[in-house]
Amino acid sequence: LLAPTEMSSPSLKTGAYILIGVGALTMLMGFLGCLGAVNEIRCLLGLYFACLMVILITQVAAGLVIYFQKESLKEELSSIVGSLIENYDPLNDDKRNLQDTWDYVQRQVACCGWTGAKDWEKNEILINKSMTEYPCSCANSSKDLEVDSGFCNLDDPVNSTATYADWPVHEQGCMDGVEKWLKDNLGVILGVCTGVAVIELLGMILSISLCKNIHSEDYTKVPKS
C-alpha cells in the first residue's frame, strides 16, 4: 500500500478518484449498453448515451486541467519524490511497493533522482555510509543490471567518502527523462486519445440510432383507431 505521507497531494488524490470513478462508470456503461441493445430497451440505451457523454466530457476536462496545471503538478510531484528519495530504505517493508515503483521508473527511463543523482545525497542511509553506496536502479553499468533495488557498493572508492559524481549512475534526472519520453511519444499518445474519443462518439451515435429505430417500431405497432 502507498504510504499516506507520500501520497498527500490533493491534486494526485483528486486525479486518482476521477480515474476510479471513470473506471466504475465504464463498467456500468458497458453492461447497460449490452443489456439495452439485446433487449431493445430505450431507457437503457439513453442511459448508455449519457454515460458515454459524461466520460467524454470528463476526459476533456482532465486533459485541460493537466495542461493548465502542469507546473503545479510538477512541483507537487517534485515534493513527493524528494521525500521518497530522502527516506528511501530497502529494509522498510511498509514502503516497499512505493519504493519498488520508483526503482522501476529509474530503470526504465534510465534516470537517477528527480532532477539528477544529486537528489540522492539527501538520503539518510547514504549519508551514514559516506556516499560509498549508491542506488542500484540508477546504475548505468552492466554489472548492476541484475540488481532491481536497494543500494550497491562502489568498487574502488577514492577516499573513505564519496559524492554522487563518483557513482556509476545515469546523469539524467527522471523529470527530464519523463518529459523527453512524453515529447517523443506525443504523436502516439494523441493518436490513442483521438481513437478513444472517436469510438465513444460512434457509440453515442449508434445508441441514438437504436433508440430511434425502437421508437419507430413501437409507433408502427400501435393499432390505428
Automatic annotation (TrEMBL):
Localization annotation: Membrane
Keywords: Membrane, Transmembrane, Transmembrane helix
GO cellular component, one term: plasma membrane
CDD domains: CD37_CD82_like_LEL
Pfam annotation, one family: Tetraspanin
TM helices/strands, residue ranges: 16-38, 45-68, 188-211
Recorded topology in the membrane: Multi-pass membrane protein
Keyword Membrane: yes
InterPro entries: Tetraspanin/Peripherin, Tetraspanin_animals, Tetraspanin_CS, Tetraspanin_EC2_sf
Homology family: Belongs to the tetraspanin (TM4SF) family.
Listed name of the protein: Tetraspanin
Gene assigned in the entry: Cd82_0
